[in-house]
Design goal:
Helix content is 8%, strand content 46%. By secondary structure, the protein is mostly beta strands. Strands 1, 2, 3, 8, 9, 10, 11 and 12 form an eight-stranded antiparallel sheet that branches. Strands 4-7 form a two-stranded antiparallel ribbon. Strand 5 and strand 6 form a beta hairpin. The two termini are 13 Å apart. 11% of the residues are buried.
């Protein structure tokens, strides 16, 4: 944690998402980003000949899928990349950078997700009784993420 007296925890509503690779190389606006999560479940190994002890050892980390939500767009480079994976089963992994911004719009922290590819594309329900935008939800698998501290 910074040692300055004027430090405040960052707000979660000011962020941006950037895409690199797969002919996307752009940034996009989203209403919600989730899935920056990693879990290490322990492997349990029983000691041979002694049933009283179970040793817990760290296993390989498992990363959640990155979920991006935004208003439905008719056309975008990101949509074309997703459709190519879904329709043609041709996947070109990309890098996704999620940046948390400060009050001046400068990145304070970032998470770089590597080897990203689409696993799910979902459109919100249509309901004539609600006055809501149609939201597309894009779910992306990734190998790992790296937390990057910005200056």
């Amino acid at each position: 944690m910074p040692t300055t007296k004027n430090y405040y925890p960052p707000v979660g509503f000011y962020f941006q998402v950037k895409f690199q690779g797969g002919n996307i190389n752009s940034e996009a606006s989203f209403k919600e980003v989730s899935g920056l999560s990693v879990n290490i479940s322990p492997d349990e190994i029983k000691e041979g000949g002694n049933t009283r002890f179970v040793h817990k050892l760290p296993a390989t980390p498992k990363y959640s899928n990155l979920v991006l939500k935004r208003g439905l767009l008719k056309d975008s480079a990101l949509r074309k990349w997703i459709e190519k994976g879904i329709n043609e089963f041709e996947f070109t992994p990309i890098t996704v950078l999620v940046q948390l911004l400060n009050d001046k719009g400068d990145p304070t922290m970032a998470w770089k997700c590597t080897n990203v590819w689409p696993v799910k594309w979902d459109i919100s329900n249509f309901n004539s009784m609600n006055n809501e935008l149609v939201v597309e939800s894009i779910e992306l698998a990734y190998d790992a993420f790296e937390t990057m501290k910005m200056s």
